[in-house]
Design brief:
The chain has 23 helices and 14 strands. By secondary structure, it is α/β, with parallel strands linked by helices. The longest helix is centred in the N-terminal third of the chain and has 16 residues. The structure holds glutamic acid. Glutamic acid binds next to strand 10.
Amino acid sequence: MSKELADLLFPDVKRTPEDMEKLYPKRELSENSKVTRIGPSPTGFVHLGNLYNAIIAERLAHQSEGIFYLRIEDTDNKREVSGAVETIITAMKFYGIQFDEGAVMDGDRGSYGPYRQRQRKDIYHVFAKVLVERGLAYPCFCSEDTLKRIRETQMQDKKDLGYYGSWASCKSLTLDEIKLKLKQGDEYVLRFRADANETYITVKDDIRGSLTMPANRLDFVLLKSDGIPTYHFAHVVDDHLMRTTHVIRGEEWIPSLPMHIQLFDIFGWKEPHYCHTATLMKMDGTSKRKLSKRKDPELALSYYQEEGYLPEALWFYILTILNSNFEEWAKEHQQSSYLDYTLALEKMSNSGALFDIDKLNDISKEMISRMSAEEVYDKWLSWIEKYHKDYAACLQSNKEMTIKALQVGRTADKIRKDLSTWKQTCTFMSMYFDEFFCREDEFDQSISLDDRNTLISLYSKTIDFTDDKNAWFDKVKYITDKLGFAVNIKEYKKNKDHYKGSIVDITNILRIAITGRSNAPDLWEVSMVIGENCVRDRLQKTLNGR
Ligand code: GLU
């Protein structure tokens, strides 16, 4: 009956698994070369986990002179969004993820394609037909309602959920019954006929070690009613034919492993190395939780582009999460690229990976602080041109001044780490542009308005733009003293009652008046960049209460 049923269900399938093996031969790579892939679904949402897994997969392949490819897993057309494949490709490109093969903007590149699962329907059918022939797959005509009823009864009776054993009524349909249903045009899915005898399976996971789990007992779906495979069937067929050696995917797939192992066994194929990566978590108060699409904007990869993070900072931070000795290595190899580091699966943690955006910001600040002012200008400008167009014009017409501004705090002796993202750079650098200047920090209210105004007037009178930094600071000290504030901080700490405050309060007022913020680079240097008119104008505005 099986042969007849197979021909009945797949009359057009003429090719055999042997034909497929010939079409997609074993890759000519050295023994240790790894073949890896990412298989994102085109849902329109590319998340951090996609990049996280892509970095692992890319590194493993390219560290071993292997192949890394992009496969679009579009079997679930309910979730598909138009333009989503392009979004994936663009996002991966932005992060410098280099594929050797796979889906590209206008089709496919490589000889193991098609690389979009919906285009591989005929290939899956070759293997589905063989399973039917071997009596290992059968059509199931159960409606959604029937399945729902089964589930409800199982729940009530506290039985394992799913289509199996005596619940799997369609597995005993006769050929005539099947023929009749097909003739009536009844819809069906193709189910796997599970072997009820196997009890446990043991799989080696390259990150987690040996995993022992109950064998699969479910007659799970291989092909949906439109003939498109489920993830499980597509994964096994694709990763076999595309000759993937290492499957890097999220730990949410661990529960499905028994199904996958069963299929690999039945086809007599070598299983790939499985590497199930830890879910990304974040601290929420004192407890760890999964990053959530609803609550955490940082889960979307687009967030980092919109905020203007350096793609390199994400790479660097993800490597830090992946291998605990990476940071140490990076310190010792400051002149090397992070791509020179050898990522090791054995060193990866198998419990939730903690993603801390503050840490990413620190890495980003460090990276930007090491760039030349010109490099910062170029990178900032190219982000601004896309995300903050009005600022772009300002940057372009003030290129020289902007570069000078970016030079402040970038000298060898004390490098400042003010800039973390290009969006934050816009805010931070607003002190240099009248168009964007705003007072972000308030004056310290414990200093009287009179004192503040006297200070500003005196400062305006004495300031001389031909002074050097020392002469300028001498004047600040002079004013400090004159207003009854302590010039010497130690002295101030000893005798607080003698003074209205210290030189720190004085410079803080001047800093807020001139730069709009209390955390700003060297005031004298900033003043030299923005120039006399601008400084005087801001002092005057402060006096006028603005
Ligand atoms: N399409 C799957 C997902 O988006 C990919 C899993 C895999 O890499 O095998 O989770």
